[in-house]
Amino acid sequence: MKGLLGTKVGMTQVWQGDRLVPVTVVLAGPCPVVQRKTPETDGYSAVQLGWIAKRDKVATKPELGHAKKAGVSAQRHLVEFRDYDPEGDTVTVEIFKPGQKVDVTGTSKGRGTAGVMKRWNFAGLPASHGVKKKHRAPGSIGQRKFPGRVYKGKRMAGRYGNERVTTLGLELLEVRPDDNLLLIKGSIPGANGGLVVVKASTRGAK
Q: Quick one: how far is CA 1 from the chain centroid?
């Protein structure tokens, strides 16, 4: 499964015929090959790609040593791609083609502690009929004497966002090798400047 690491730049619009299409711009690659894993040495086949963004902190000593062993500069992010063996020591946006479907993984925006209406789209309690100051409350969360506890996994208020999210089957409108840019139709997870992983989509593949 071929893929690439990059940084979400932001959203804009491009003309597609006579229509304006919203796109997300991703600065992707070039990503150096930091390590190649084989079934003989590691038990599985994979390639490890590296990426470092402008705003990333300085790499740690273990990261520096790992990169030095591969003969590349310090990399802040390392991601493995299974069963993928690219040619050469660098992977660029040219592995993708316009019109191709891709899966994009990123870290969603953290929104802190949120109630059940914002976090889980609950309807809330009635606005009248004796309800006082509990309009956005979840309502009953358990039973009576039996089983006398709250089930695990009950949807309740809590931390919302800041988790790994993958959007599947997005259309890749443009590939700009000279600028290392990918223009992906629609929105992708995460804030501007965040790390994203772009993979060739396997959705619907036979």
A: 16
